[in-house]
Amino acid sequence: xxxxxxxxxxxxILLAAWTGLGAEQPSQKDDEVGKEMAQSxxxxxxxxxxxxxxxxxxxxxxxxxxxxxxxxxxxxxxxxDYVGKRVRIRGSRIAGYPISGGPDYLDIKxxxxxxx
Length: 116
What we know:
single chain; alpha+beta; CATH 2.40.50; 5-stranded mixed beta barrel; 23% helix; elongated
């Protein structure tokens, strides 16, 4: 089969496009950012020191009307400074939780006080 060069090039371009060759693949960092955004949680409530519970994880809890919404961990943050205050938090879910009937477990990245 003796095809002109332009047809061979066209065929190669179409084949590359169809198979994804030459297409930019997402990097591992892009995947991690996407996962983090998908798992990012924003919530409002009152931060309380964790009491004895059946689930026993988290240093603090985010509550609303007496109901525990999330168990909290704030690596590098002083959650103790926010105890008893109404806040808006942003964090990400910690894999492997909830357990023992407890709430989702969040690693807190940001806390904003809503009232003083």
